[in-house]
Amino acid sequence: MKKVAVVYHSGFGHTEVQAQAVVKGARSVSGVTSNLFEVTQVTEKPEQLNAYDAIIFGAPTYMGSLSAPFKTFMDASSKVWFNQGWKDKLAAGFTNSGSMSGDKLNSLIQLSTFSAQHGMLWVSLGQMNESSEPGITNGHPEAINRIGSYLGAMAQSDNLPTNQTPPSGDLKTAELLGKRVAEAAIRWQ
Ligand SMILES: Cc1cc2nc3c(=O)[nH]c(=O)nc-3n(C[C@H](O)[C@H](O)[C@H](O)COP(=O)(O)O)c2cc1C
Question: Which of 92, 100, 108, 170 shows the smallest number of beta carbons within 10 Å?
Fold first, then answer.
């Protein structure tokens, strides 16, 4: 059985919904178990994650970079880094922000750099921009990868309750990231 951890921060619940979709996708793969950790649950003892084959990281983009509680976890993980405790595990990332861009590519770059520092192997999104409605892809709320990110999964949330935003396409995109990492974990020895 392969184990996939999803570690996330969410100030107002929107990235949490995205994280739940990532776990749903990972759990859809036979032979994989997946656990969801709100970041403060693992900040004090990041070595709890040593037992996992893959770790998927996610946080909202605040002021053009990862939110501060997530960065606190990143810094706390330096004690794992000393022993390279996550070396050769799979890694992937997701982020969510208010604007369509909002400079959130920077957050995925931060996550991939962070994973590289740990010697992890980064799994990209691997999804084209797709919609069930012919000709409507970019920006369509039901489209897969409507934002056109390949490094990881992006979502855009309006200033509305979490049962309204982020839209279904962004949640499906997050689910597909979880599924891809879980399938890669099965293949990765
Ligand atoms: C302190 C702060 C900074 C933010 N900075 C950005 C930003 O740089 N770009 C952006 O598009 N949205 C920004 N936003 C909007 C959030 O990314 C957006 O509301 C997101 O859905 C919040 O996710 P959460 O509900 O998981 O906290 C910011 C929000 C806050 C509270």
Answer: 100
